[in-house]
Write a structure and sequence with these properties.
Jelly Rolls; 3 domains; seven-stranded antiparallel beta sheet; 9 helices; 22 strands
Length: 505
């Protein structure tokens, strides 16, 4: 065990040990049987932690029974012959009914307790034993139990062990690239990808690979200049500093003639970089903190920029030929914060069959009260457009100024009504457990393991007794995507409660 407090039995109270064993006020025999069940399980297991877990449960056994066994030995040495006779006949009781005396041979005792209405079975599932021919991904597979569990009434999650090997920057979901696209008619067909390798990144590694990708852009006529991407450890935000140039047919264009595209601008025009498998809130731009829009114009005189400066939606500066934009949100590399375990046991009569979450927000956008309106004089002539706020204050703008303001407002509204709509919350059926991820101190590749305790709150109750044999298990992230474990295997265990029946039918 070493000095690991997690496996030091003395660190736990008896109630905490009961929770680990999944028992509640057990008899000595029930407690002993439960502990021996765990010891035998890990003695036969090939799991990397099997030896440690076996030793842990052996220590629990010693904690509860070492002193008790010594006391029992002393007590047995002092027992009289009369007491021995009583013990041998303790399971026989006389019952008098209608003047007839009968013998009940199986009355409750410590050795022969009442038969319970339900019994519990432990089911252990390891993805390494799945059918690889039909289910390549370890996070999405079907399986059959070695035997049918009859008359099941409930099941709950007892343990899980998942390797931390899902990528926060993934090529599977198109989160590993963005584009520079021409924003002028002459170069609208120009699409320059900035792509990085999929993997698990921290802030420093991400900045290194992004700037390396910028430096390695190999497109005829394109020069990166001193363009770079930096991360502020104070603001926790990412800034683009761009002064690249692009030359075509003797004409040189600079960064202000382009836009940064994080999602869905190509509309299938680029077969390689078309964001087909991405969601708006899974893109590299979203991860970097650019949440307001899917694409960002780089022209400081453009309507989008002017409107955004007014609304303070993202920071934009222009010095000489250099353009700077800063994300409106902090960098977030914790792309998977919760793992949803979906479990389909092909039984229709159950309670919790899906995930209840926030409803999708309305796409109807109301104009602010400062929008312009047109008024008429008494003689039915038309006044210049005025702001409602200005009307209240008795102030008027020129018609040209108001038209410009309206254009900015319309531009912003279009962005909000179209490309800026967030992806809907995930709609996932058969959710059995929601597992918050605790990555603090967990290195990539290490096992994220939990057992006992609060995991038992993840429980499924059936309306009636069901037979369990076939299952389909899936792991989702909070975006509703199947988690890619990149070849890593995981396991989980269930405690299934069944009605007791001699015939098992």
């Amino acid at each position: 065990m070493g000095d690991d407090k997690e496996y030091n039995v003395s660190q736990y109270s008896e109630n905490e040990l009961y929770n680990i064993l999944d028992v509640n006020n057990p008899t000595d025999r029930e407690l002993e049987a439960k502990i021996l069940q765990f010891i035998n399980k890990y003695e036969e297991s090939d799991h990397p932690q099997a030896k440690t877990m076996k030793t842990f449960f052996e220590d629990i056994y010693d904690h509860f029974f070492s002193e008790e066994e010594e006391e029992e030995k002393e007590g047995m040495a002092n027992m009289s012959d009369d007491n021995s006779t009583t013990k041998n006949t303790q399971n026989v009781q006389l019952t008098k009914t209608n003047n007839t005396t009968t013998i009940d041979e199986y009355m409750p005792s410590e050795l022969n307790p009442f038969i319970k209405e339900t019994i519990k079975r432990m089911v252990f599932i390891d993805s390494q034993y799945r059918d690889y021919d039909n289910f390549f991904a370890s996070s999405d597979f079907k399986f059959d139990l070695t035997e049918t569990i009859h008359r099941a009434v409930s099941m709950k999650l007892h343990s899980f062990s998942i390797p931390y090997c899902w990528y926060n920057i993934s090529n599977m979901y198109n989160t590993n690239y963005f584009l520079f696209e021409g924003n002028m008619e002459e170069i609208k067909d120009v699409r320059i990808p900035v792509q990085i390798k999929a993997g698990i990144y921290d802030e420093s590694k991400l900045m290194n690979v992004l700037n390396e990708a910028l430096a390695n852009i190999n497109v005829d006529g394109f020069s990166i200049g001193s363009s770079r991407i930096i991360y502020s450890t104070v603001e926790l935000k990412i800034k683009f500093i761009l002064n690249f140039t692009y030359t075509r047919d003797g004409t040189t264009y600079n960064a202000k003639d382009f836009k940064v595209v994080f999602y869905n601008s190509t509309n299938g025009k680029n077969p390689t970089f078309n964001f087909d498998h991405a969601q708006r809130n899974t893109t590299l731009g979203w991860i970097m903190g650019f949440h307001n829009f899917t694409e960002y114009g780089l022209d400081p005189q453009g309507e989008q920029i002017s409107g955004l400066e007014t609304l303070n939606n993202y920071i934009y500066t222009d010095t000489s030929e250099t353009v700077e934009i800063t994300g409106n949100s902090v960098l977030d590399l914790n792309t998977t914060k919760t793992i949803y375990l979906a479990l389909n046991e092909y039984a229709s009569n159950r309670m919790n069959d899906g995930l209840v979450t926030i409803g999708q927000p309305s796409k109807v956008v109301k104009r602010p009260m400062s929008q312009s309106i047109t008024t008429k004089n008494v003689d039915n002539t038309t006044n210049p457009s005025v702001s409602r706020n200005d009307v209240a204050q008795g102030q008027y703008h020129t018609e040209n100024a108001l038209q410009a303001s309206n254009a900015i407002l319309n531009e912003n509204t279009q962005h909000i009504q179209g490309k800026t709509i967030y992806s809907p919350p995930p709609q996932i059926g058969d959710i059995f457990a929601a597992i918050p991820i605790k990555l603090s101190g967990l290195r990539p590749g290490a096992l994220f393991t939990e057992f006992g305790g609060a995991l038992g709150e993840n429980k499924r109750n059936f309306f009636g007794a069901v037979h369990l044999k076939k299952f389909h298990v899936q792991l989702y992230n909070e975006k509703g995507q199947i988690i890619e474990l990149n070849g890593g295997n995981w396991n989980f265990s269930l405690t299934i409660e069944s009605l007791y029946n001699y015939n098992n039918k």
